[in-house]
Design goal:
Keywords: Hydrolase. This protein is of the alpha/beta class. The chain has helices at residues 37-43, 73-86, 99-110, 135-146, 149-157, 160-168, 170-178, 185-196, 204-207, 227-236, 252-271, and strands at residues 6-10, 13-19, 25-30, 50-55, 92-97, 115-121, 214-219, 240-245. Strand 7, helix 10 (227-236) and strand 8 form a beta-alpha-beta unit.
Length: 277
C-alpha cells in the first residue's frame, strides 16, 4: 500500500495496520477472507485527496492470530474501529472486498455516527449468517483440521465441490486450493470455519435504515460472491448504486480496472474529495 505497516496490539494479537496518512477523505477498506493489504491495493484506487487505512485481520496477511476466540466479523470490525480511533479518524467511508464488505456493513450499522459511506465489493454476505455460498470454506476448514495438509488438499481437489467450482468458477477454486498451502493453515482453518458460519450482523430492516451513500460492486462467474447477494444489498440500502464489472475469471486485469474506476467515480461524485472529518 505504499507505506510500512504499524503494529497494533489487540488483546495478545499483533495486527498490521496500513495507513497512507494523507488526504482529506478517509476510507477504511478491508480485505477478503484470507486476503491482505495487497488485495486492497488491487481494488482501491489511490488519490492524494484520499487517505486509506487497512487492518490485516487476525491470522491473515502479516497479523497474528492471538488467543481470543471465537473469531467473528464483529471482532474484526472492532479491531478496525480501534485502528481508526488510534489514527484519529472520526468519520470515514467504510467497506472492502467480500469479508471486508461485511465488516463495513457491520460498522455502519453499529456506528452510524462514524460511517459516512459504504463501498462493498463482491459481498459474500447479505442478511443471513452461514450463507450457502460460504459452505466450501467450512468444507476446506474441516479437511485441514482432520487430515495432513497434502492429503486434505487432494481430498478437496477431487471432491464434488471442487468439480463444480472447476466448471463454474475457476477463480474461486484457485483461492480455495491456496488455503492448503498457507504457512498458518491450521489456525487459519479456525478463522475460515468461524467466519463462514458467521454473518455481517445486519438485518434487511437495518440495512434499509442505512441512510448513507453506498456503492455495491458485483460480478458474475463467482460462486462465493453471487450477483444476487450484491443486488439484494443494493436493493435494501436506500442510497445505493449497483455496478456490475467483468468477472475475475474472464479477465483479471479488466476486472480490477473496472472496480477501481467504479470506486473512483463513486467517491468523486458523492464526496467530491472533501475532508469529511
Amino acid at each position: 500500500m505504499g507505506t510500512a505497516p504499524a503494529i497494533m496490539l489487540r488483546d495478545d494479537a499483533a495486527l498490521r495496520v496500513f495507513d497512507t496518512g494523507q488526504g482529506g477523505l478517509a476510507i477504511v477498506f478491508q480485505h477478503g477472507l484470507g486476503g491482505d493489504a495487497a488485495q486492497v491495493a488491487q481494488n482501491l484506487p489511490d488519490s492524494p485527496s484520499r487517505r486509506r487505512l487497512t487492518v490485516e485481520c487476525r491470522a491473515q496477511g502479516g497479523s497474528g492470530a492471538g488467543s481470543k476466540r471465537p473469531f467473528s466479523i464483529a471482532m474484526f470490525a472492532d479491531d478496525v474501529l480501534a485502528a481508526a480511533d488510534a489514527a484519529r479518524l472520526d468519520r470515514f467511508v467504510a467497506g472492502g472486498i467480500s469479508m471486508g464488505a461485511a465488516i463495513g456493513v457491520n460498522l455502519a450499522s453499529r456506528y452510524p455516527e462514524r460511517v459516512i459511506g459504504l463501498v462493498l465489493v463482491r459481498p459474500a454476505w447479505a442478511f443471513e449468517a452461514a450463507p450457502q455460498n460460504m459452505r466450501p470454506y467450512v468444507e476446506v476448514a474441516g479437511l485441514i483440521r482432520d487430515r495432513p495438509l497434502d492429503e486434505a488438499r487432494d481430498a478437496f481437489a477431487t471432491s464434488a465441490t471442487a468439480a463444480r467450482f472447476r466448471a463454474e468458477a475457476p477463480d474461486n477454486l484457485a483461492s480455495l486450493l491456496g488455503f492448503f498451502a498457507r504457512e498458518n493453515a491450521t489456525v487459519f482453518a479456525e478463522v475460515m470455519q468461524a467466519i463462514a458460519n458467521d454473518g455481517a450482523g445486519v438485518t434487511q430492516a437495518a440495512a434499509s435504515g442505512l441512510a448513507i451513500p453506498t456503492l455495491v460492486v458485483g460480478s458474475g462467474v463467482d460462486l462465493v460472491h453471487p450477483l444476487a447477494i450484491a443486488r439484494s444489498l443494493a436493493d435494501a440500502i436506500p442510497d445505493a448504486a449497483f455496478v456490475e464489472v467483468t468477472p475475475k475469471a474472464a479477465d483479471k486485469d479488466r476486472h480490477f480496472t473496472e472496480v477501481r474506476a467504479a470506486i473512483a467515480r463513486f467517491l468523486d461524485d458523492r464526496f467530491n474529495n472533501q475532508d469529511q472529518s
